[in-house]
Design goal:
Rossmann fold, six-stranded parallel sheet, 168 residues
Length: 168
């Protein structure tokens, strides 16, 4: 596998916790952790494989640090890049926009030419709607620390195994 960037906010609780579990699951793989709050186009384009941590804020919005990067992101050509997305959500208290951040960022990346990898089944989740859904799959790994924390470790382990096959 080529060197991979894992980009997430180092200052978040749940997204950072998930990122650390993902890094641990990859083990000896060559992952480079980058803080999403300091991301630039140059840093973003450094590696062709990307794992992005994106929370959903408020009623289905991107966190400020991703939102502020969008103007620069819209100028990037991401052809040849493979991107996997993960993010925390709360399906009980926010069932109408569960993990929307994954879908918002994923759609923007696809528009720029990136190939989204790491789709996961929506089976086992209870929510009303999500912008991250494509058919019966999420555009990445949805984690619910509030309501299904006991499933996070296994979901991450399975997702990392899937990414090992989907990343070159």
């Amino acid at each position: 596998m080529k060197k991979t960037s894992i980009i997430y906010s180092f200052n978040t609780v749940k997204t950072a916790q998930a990122a650390k579990m993902i890094i641990e699951s990859f083990g000896d793989q060559d992952l480079e952790a980058l803080n999403a709050e300091d991301i630039t186009g140059e840093k973003f384009l450094k590696n062709k494989n990307l794992i992005l941590g994106v929370a959903t804020w408020f009623d289905g919005e991107l966190p400020n640090y991703w939102d502020e990067f969008i103007p620069e992101l819209e100028e990037l050509n991401l052809k040849g890049y493979k991107v996997a997305l993960f993010g925390p959500g709360d399906q009980k208290n926010y069932p109408e926009n569960f993990v929307d951040g994954i879908g918002i960022l994923g759609s923007l990346l696809e528009e720029r030419g990136a190939v989204i990898v790491g789709f996961t089944s929506a089976e086992g989740y209870k929510f009303e709607k999500s912008r991250a859904l494509r058919g019966d799959k999420f555009m990445g790994l949805a984690l619910d620390f509030e309501n299904q924390a006991s499933k996070n470790k296994e979901r991450i382990r399975n997702w990392v195994e899937q990414l090992r096959k989907e990343f070159p």
